[in-house]
Amino acid sequence: MGTGRALILCCSDSLSISSSYSPSPAISTTSAPPVKRRRKRYRRLYPGESKGITEEMRFVAMRLRRVNKGSSDDDDQDSSSEDGKEREGNLASDDDDGGVGGATWEPTLDGYLKYLVDSKLVFDTVERIVDESSDVAYAYFRKTGLERSEGLAKDLEWIRLQGFVIPESSNPGVSYAKYLNELAEKSAPLFLCHFYNIYFSHIAGGQVIARQVSKKLLEGREMEFYRWEGDVPGLMSGVREKLNMLGEHWSRDEKNKCLKEATKSFRFLGQIVRLIIL
């Protein structure tokens, strides 16, 4: 009896083990298809971005000039020489007919006085802000050799001694000076873009204005406003390098805002230049 029960239990366990066993699924020998990696997309660079923020602003100046002249977008695209850098931001074009921005113009002494007075207000403003600000970014642009306030003061004094009444600052200069003061408190990058364009435009376009006005109104006198001590291209290059260095630490958003401010700068300055013929 004992042996029979043991046999039954043994057989029962054997059946249970047999019924619970299931063979492992066959391992597939087919290899999985290769995983396709997404190609990394790189952001398209802005015109001039590889060379620095000042080169980006130069392209803005080029575009504005083409718009003003009614030229196509393909003109001057690969103008990258140093001469191009100095001429594309011109507020005045050196045309044979004495044109400003491609239009024939006749300067008046009253208008030129307004231009000098408003220009002095603008240069006084940017130079005071740079000298007095506690922002370390502005310290790079002190005593660059490009300062114009002192020369303008001498010119206006000479004109006063000739018996002419020096006018008060007019709306274009007052508006721009106010805007610069407000902008300097908000953002050093945006203010410095105006700073650069003010000097760049004066050096590039100011020479054309000087020749035309001196010939027509001042009997060929050379104004202090258009005289510098030292190598002007070298001085401007130093400012350009410092601004590009700072620009390397700006976000793309800050640079885009800077380019918008460059457009505003040229428009403000254009309004002041137009005082000459009003």
Automatic annotation (TrEMBL):
InterPro entries (UniProt xref): Haem_Oase, Haem_Oase-like, Haem_Oase_decyc_pln
Protein name, per record: Inactive heme oxygenase 2, chloroplastic
GO molecular function, one term: heme oxygenase (decyclizing) activity
Principal cellular location given in the protein's record: plastid
PANTHER family per the UniProt record, alphabetical: HEME OXYGENASE 1, CHLOROPLASTIC-RELATED, INACTIVE HEME OXYGENASE 2, CHLOROPLASTIC-RELATED
Gene Ontology biological process: heme oxidation; photosynthesis; phytochromobilin biosynthetic process
Domain of life: Eukaryota
Gene Ontology terms: cellular component: chloroplast
Transferase in keyword set: no
One Pfam family, short name: Heme_oxygenase
Keyword Chloroplast: yes
Region feature (Disordered): 18-47, 68-101
Originating organism: Carya illinoinensis
Subcellular location: Plastid, Chloroplast
Taxonomy of the source species: Eukaryota, Viridiplantae, Streptophyta, Embryophyta, Tracheophyta
Entry keyword set: Chloroplast, Photosynthesis, Plastid, Transit peptide
Biased composition (Low complexity): 18-33
Family statement: Belongs to the heme oxygenase family.
Record's compositionally biased regions (Basic residues): 35-44
